[in-house]
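Its record is set out here:
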Amino acid sequence: MSMRQRCLNPNNPAFKSYGGRGISICERWELFENFYADIGQRPPGLEIDRIDVNGNYEPGNCRWATVLEQGRNQRKTRFVTINGVTKCMSEWISEFGINRTTLESRLRLGWPVENALTHPKVGHGGRPKKALGGICA
């Protein structure tokens, strides 16, 4: 689906998430030649992505990205900082090898995010025990 359709066509199913919430395409990119000069040829397997998901399609806010990179760069993405390093939750899940369901259960029980990510599975059937004062009981 093209950025022009998402931003400019109210009949496009994605319009409400783009043009409908004020995302626009810079005037310079109305000419394809300018777009091409600014961002270059589309590399195989990549798609246009806005670095700031609330920003416009414009030089400095767009890049070519993989589907995985795009998936980690959405409004709903939750970022977490551990030991001064900020990553999206999906990256931390991959890094620590934790099951997403286990993590979500721990967070619902009130575990601090860092503990929920780094603590090994405990309890019967892999179900985490309720956290008490940030420490697992």
In short: The chain has two domains: 3-71, 79-136.
